[in-house]
Design brief:
Length: 312
């Protein structure tokens, strides 16, 4: 018998292109995932994909099961959501703040989807607030904060969304563009372009420059990602951004990117919520939708670990 877990595993394999990343996505060890796939192949009496190909090349049987997954899993998800709504009896509010200048690429589709399916939940992204989002969350002025900088605040839970790598964007003609990676000292002679936020909230400082006691020659700020890219492309500085925020600019060969350190720097993006709303059906569904949308629209991100109680 084909089970839903089999279909979800095949979809994860298609979306990630590798057994290792598919195992992370469905929260299994690679050994357990391989065992599950072999069990499914035994049930259908044939291979589902060609081993040692990347991205994964599926057989006709594998493609047929993927078609079934595409048809069935959305219906199951809708039914799960409808059952959760029927079980809930109270109205909700979802006012959020985003400590991530590049997050709208995946957050807006998430909000649109959520608004369509949970019309009874009041959802808003207040602008122009002049307060610290996380303390405001604790005071119930906000209901969710997207952040990569979790703070130990009583009553606040941090649900991991995904992991991402920070890359340094440089002009295509910049000497760094020919390197596989750079060390912190290389930025001592550069103009670093950042968003106008505290340096303690920027990964390029907390994970790369500050531990090495290095400071850029000059720091320049810009409000928008596209403004930063224009400055970088014209040789007026370099900037560190999440890998997924750079994807379209790299694909258009507008700028180049280089790793920060030989191993790179990786961070986790979280949804901060209050413990009291953590178990509500609508909050669980929002977090699940956010994760699914992120992996559907972003490149280069990885699962951030299992957060069972936040899953629907």
């Amino acid at each position: 018998m084909i089970e839903l877990r089999h279909l979800r595993t095949l979809v994860a394999l298609r979306e990630t292109g590798s057994l290792v990343e598919a195992a992370e996505r469905v929260h299994l060890t690679q050994s357990a995932l391989s065992h599950q796939l072999k069990d499914l192949e035994h049930r259908v009496a044939g291979p589902l994909f060609v081993r040692k190909t990347r991205p994964v090349e599926f057989t006709r049987a594998g493609l047929r099961l993927l078609a079934l997954a595409d048809e069935l899993l959305p219906s199951v998800r809708r039914a799960e959501r409808d059952l959760a709504r029927l079980a809930g009896t109270e109205q909700g509010r979802l006012h959020m703040a985003i400590e991530c200048h590049s997050c709208f690429q995946w957050l807006m589709p998430t909000v649109d989807y959520f608004r369509d399916h949970w019309p009874e939940i009041e959802i808003d992204i207040p602008s122009g607030h002049h307060f610290d989002p996380l303390p405001a969350l604790a005071r119930e002025q906000l209901d969710l904060v997207i952040t990569a900088d979790p703070q130990p605040i009583e009553g606040i839970h941090y649900a991991p969304l995904f992991r991402y790598e920070g890359l340094l964007a440089v002009a295509r003609q910049h000497p760094f563009a020919q390197k596989a990676f750079i060390e912190p000292e290389a930025l001592a002679g550069e103009t670093l372009i950042t968003y106008p936020v505290e340096h303690t909230r920027l990964d390029v400082f907390t994970q790369f420059l500050t531990p090495a006691e290095v400071r850029p020659k000059e720091i320049r700020t810009a409000e928008l990602t596209i403004m930063m890219m224009q400055l970088v492309a014209s040789g007026r500085g370099v900037c560190a951004l999440p890998n997924w925020a750079l994807t379209e600019y790299l694909e258009r060969a507008y700028v180049s990117a280089v790793k920060l350190g030989e191993s790179g720097i990786w961070s986790t993006l979280f949804a901060a919520i209050r413990e009291e709303t953590r178990h509500t059906p609508w909050m669980k569904d929002f977090l699940r939708t956010a994760r699914e949308t992120s992996f559907a629209v972003l490149s280069g991100i990885k699962p951030a670990g299992h957060d069972e109680e936040s899953e629907a």
